[in-house]
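Continuing the batch. This is chain 6 of the set; chains 1 through 5 are on the previous pages. Same settings as before, nothing changed between runs. Recording input and output for traceability.
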Amino acid sequence: MTAPGIDGQAGGSPEVTAEQFRLLVEQVKDYAIFLLDPEGRVASWNHGAERITGYSAAEILGRHFACFYPPEDAAAGKPAKALGSATRTGRYQERGWRVRKDGERYFAQVSITALLDEHGEPRGFAKITRDSTGDLQAERTLREREQQLAEAQAVAKLGSFEWDLTTDRVTWSPELARIYGLHPASSSASFDGFLRQIHPDDRAAVTGTVRRAAETGMPFRLEGRVVRPTGEPRLVASWGEVARNEQGRPSRVLGVCQDVTELRQHEEQLAEAYAREELSRRLQSGLLPSLSLRSSTLWLRTRYQPGQERALLGADFFDALDLPDGTVALLIGDVAGHGPDEAAVGVALRAAWRALVLTGHGAGELLNGLDQVLVRERPSVEVFTTLCCAWISPDRSRITVALAGHPPPLLARGGTVEAVTAPTGPALGIHDDGYLWEPGVVEVGDAWTLLCYTDGLVEGLAAPGSVERFGIDGLVEEVARLLGAPTELDELLDGVLEVVHAANGGDLSDDVAIVCLSRCPRTAGRLAAPAAGQPDLAAALPERQLPTGQLG
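Output for chain 6:
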């Protein structure tokens, strides 16, 4: 067809040329193809233009093509600039937003060609427009997917590479460049150049594995170190597969690489932590064994609770022994500090205590021997140990107590509770030339309860927010209160711990170990002080076997 004011081309009949042009244009449905006069008014229209813009020929012919532009672009003079550029250069092309009749915007690929007469003067313009909104959306989706992939690879520290066996070129992803410490713009190299990043000690194994995969077409998996340009080594796990061409021959090696440096370090740390935990468990069992006595007249209970620093192995320890003559020996101690070294010292002291007790050493000799063991076994001269040793006579009426810097045990008898009065010597490891520790002897009668403990039980707060310590006096008061009613020995120990925790406002800062021994022959093992003015009927009851062993 021929637009108004635009003649057919020279060299043929204008009617034939116009008819051929009309048929050509009308057969095109995916493109808007139309003519503009020299001023930019629409001079022809096709079905593709109607489909894309929504205008019919009757609605658009004669209107300026600026109506296809967004208002802001039309106001900025873009239509005139497009015609001016086409006039100067012969053709103008761009991609940009356009507006349909209903106001909907679409992304268009536009070409404007100047139509010139034989003198080079513009006679009008041919305009071709394609709706490429779908292409734009596809490009955006592709970019988003690429960005998501890059982000996922960065989070997982996962990069990828492709080795083209035909060209011997290796290309890699931005994340792999980051793992290798390469410039982000760097994305390809020869296979040998790619391998230069591998640690010299690992290069032969990595090269051989990947080349064998390329030759055999088999998948591969390996770990090796790469060396960044800064000299920093990184451990990289790689796995990949081989793609084949149409003839079935290996053509490309596709690989994925993950920086597992921190992962392997974390695994090593976990393994070390597990080993430390196992060592701690063994040491703890050496410090705090399950105790039992053969005696049918004594009831033994123990407790242990770690302090707030639960990750550190405590060094509180205890033990009990039946001796051939019927004597029962007790031990409770506390090595200053926390950790496996201190715990090992506690295990050594407990073993030495057993040996010295079983060979009949008295209190003074025993503590001097333990002092020498501590000096030899301790990790540093700052480490000291407090101890409480007790011997219960075969007839259970007398207790011998020796203290080395340790808080005194509590003794409940005859309706009263008091701290045992015994000579208190220094802690082990304080005096370079040793010390002569002396024991104290207490006549306890027929019914009594002895509570031995480490200082963590009394060094907590007297009340939440207080600056005062719970102290031995506070412990005496609470034990007396708990014994004021019929109480089982387990209830007594649990009650003491509950009260101390509540006063402290939570967990205690230090570990707590308790050894409690009772000769209180009452039914069901209940402990109670006699009411004022009433006889102690417990003393008149026959002795019966009481259970022993650690609970809790």
